[in-house]
Amino acid sequence: MAATSRGTTPVPPESRPRLTVLSGPSGVGKSTVVAHMRKEHPEVWLSVSATTRKPRPGEQHGVHYFFVTDEEMDKLIANGELLEWAEFAGNRYGTPRAAVLERLEAGEPVLLEIDLQGARQVRGSMPEAQLVFLAPPSWDELVRRLTGRGTEPPEVIERRLAAARVELAAEPEFDRTLVNTSVEDVARELLALTNVV
Ligand code: ADP
Ligand code: 5GP
Predict the structure, then answer these.
(1) CA of 128 to the centre of ligand 1 (A)
(2) Does the beta carbon of 92 sit less than 6 angstroms from any atom of ligand 1?
(3) What is the pTM of this model?
(4) Would you say 119 and 152 are in contact if contact means Cβ atoms under 8 Å apart?
(5) Looking at the domain assignment, is residue 53 inside a domain?
(6) Of the bound ligands, which one is closest to the alpha carbon of residue 34?
(7) Is 30 one of the annotated binding-site residues?
(8) What are the tens digits of pLDDT across the range 60-91?
(9) Is residue 9 in a domain?
(10) Distance CA 78, CA 81 (A)
(11) For residue 166, how many C-alpha atoms fall within 13 Å in the half-sphere facing its CB?
(12) Which InterPro entries does the record match to this protein (predicted)?
């Protein structure tokens, strides 16, 4: 096991779960790690969430998120179209159910990048899911990354850091922790955990 990983003993590939949930505090590097992994392994299927958040520069509808209005999100929830959903730092986010179930039924590995509340919901409804926590090397480094990204105003950063304290305390709920010191190392470990052959 590489130095970035903490967790239980290795699981043989044939018995590994096919649904992997990646969570961790905002700014820890989840998107960066997943993008790095998928650049080299585009076959890893990542669920595209719906969100009421406004797009950041460069984010595309249908690629990074489905950007929806509050009313559209209300309908997705009311119609049971989301596998899980949560409010995070003032916006709502949810995982479209149908696309995930299709992939799982086809026997393909599925990756979700969602917050702690969503991870808990998935654990409740799909106990076979594998929950992976991405941790920062230190609190100060997390603050540096979140601030350095330059995509949120100070009050939103404060809200996200408040959520981060709660998320970091929940690390023991996860099956495995990867510490994001090196994007390359973590991407490699995550690839192995997603069981893509
Ligand atoms: P998240 O998706 O978890 O909110 P991002 O992927 O947007 O986080 O990363 C937040 C910032 O941290 C970005 O500016 C990114 O370039 C940087 N970052 C990510 N991983 C690392 C790393 N291992 N070392 C240094 N900076 C990193
Ligand atoms: P961001 O606004 O930085 O893209 O995402 C904020 C938080 O929402 C992150 O922790 C991200 O993982 C989480 N998130 C993204 N999509 C979903 C989703 O579909 N469901 C849940 N519960 N959280 C999500």
Answers:
(1) 28
(2) no
(3) 0.92
(4) no
(5) yes
(6) 1
(7) yes
(8) 999 999 999 999 999 999 999 999 999 999 99
(9) no
(10) 8
(11) 11
(12) GK/Ca_channel_bsu, Guanylate_kin-like_dom, Guanylate_kinase, Guanylate_kinase_CS, P-loop_NTPase
Given the DSSP bridges, would you call strands 176-179 and 5-7 parallel, antiparallel or unpaired? antiparallel
User: Nearest ligand, CA of residue 29?
Assistant: 1
Reported in sequence order, the residue ranges of 49-99 that DSSP labels E, i.e. its strands, are 50-51, 66-67, 82-88, 91-96
Tell me if 1 is assigned to some domain: no
Domain that holds residue 66: 14-194
Whichever domain contains 122, its CATH number is 3.40.50.300
154's tokens: 């100070």
How many structural domains are present in the chain?
1
Cα separation, 137 vs 135, in Å, equals: 7
In contact, 90 and 156? CB cutoff 8 Å: yes
150-197, pLDDT tens digit by residue? 889 999 999 999 999 999 999 999 999 999 999 999 999 999 999 765
Q: Residue 23 C-alpha to ligand 1 middle, in angstroms? A: 13
Q: Is 33 annotated as a binding residue?
A: no
Residue holding tokens 């997603």? 194
| Residue minimizing CA distance to atom 12 of ligand 2 | 114
Give domain status of residue 118, yes or no: yes
